[in-house]
């Protein structure tokens, strides 16, 4: 819902989440899949350095997502 | 020549459409006038004699939202005319006027038990709250759309008062209410389902009995161009300041908070914690960057890809009413627009 309201006023949103179907259904236009509901931008099983790299990767994907031309709710990986 | 009697309708409008004045007159208390005023004339004209506006009730937008008794006063004024139906607005995308029009309709429907109608734009803040209760015509966002929406509202109200069925086209003009209507069918559900399945198998036309309620979709925002993007971080995962000084709820949220991050290179459990009753928050409490990736965002900032907005916006998105979620979203959207933010990363649990 927050995503919809932001996109409505013209602010593109990269929504990082795990439950992709729900996000697409609720009108998120740019979905970046993440690993777990419990830690959308992390992974406690990784070493700190690797976890930071994972996060940086998600940030880069998200930056690509808000620069992407999309026609309808889409998953951007 | 047989002459049909017009239906007797009361029209509710605000001080602006009532010709009293703009914002400076928004404190005008409710009062009634005989006959039609302003857009009420268009309503009568476009109905070709089917609708007579017997009275107009006018109330200032501020008065309505600031005075608890305003709704009662308005309903009483309407009741005095003994109308057969009430039309409010249309209010298009106006905030206070939309709230007033929709709540007047709901109260009239409940207390006077007569048909009502209002008209709201798709981005009206009143829409999510009232669409379940009253018929609302889909209008444009501003009064430019008056000449299109008023005749539609008139036709639908007239037919409802007369007990006539709406055409499919007219039904499409109303926002979906998400209600089901009980009807009696000759064949039972199993028979109908088999027939539908066979029709589908044979490639014949068939019609579903349960069309999915369509959410209002929002067309994708245009992408931002490259070069440092002014970007904000938002989450529905319940990030709060340590010790929860703002008293944020862990769910059923009614509001959001802003967390100032301009002096932070990453999120630390010494500064923030997580309050959300919808998931196990252990891992994100241990390292809040797993919920809102501030550390990685700072890296991207150093690389010149983004300029980070100095606040994180946060709420706990669990068991939150749709209308509250929409309101929270609109609030954040407005703040970010005002701050010139170009894009958002929203992390969701």
Walk me through the structure:
- The complex is a heterodimer of chains A (77) and B (349).
- Chain A is an alpha/beta fold.
- Chain A has one domain.
- Chain A has 3 helices and 3 strands.
- Chain A has a 3-stranded parallel sheet, with helices on both faces.
- In chain A, helix 3 links the parallel strand 2 and strand 3.
- The radius of gyration of chain A is 13 Å and the shape is globular.
- The two termini of chain A are 22 Å apart.
- Chain B is 33% helix and 19% strand.
- Chain B is built from 11 helices and 12 strands.
- A 6-stranded mixed sheet of chain B has the order 2-3-1-4-5-6, sandwiched between helices. Chain B has a 4-stranded mixed sheet with strand order 9-11-7-12, covered by helices on one side. In chain B, strands 8-10 form a two-stranded antiparallel sheet.
- The longest helix of chain B is centred in the N-terminal third of the chain and has 17 residues.
- The model of chain B has no long low-confidence stretch (mean pLDDT 92).
- At the A-B interface, helix 1, strand 1 and helix 3 of A face strand 7, helix 9, helix 10, helix 11 and strand 12 of B.
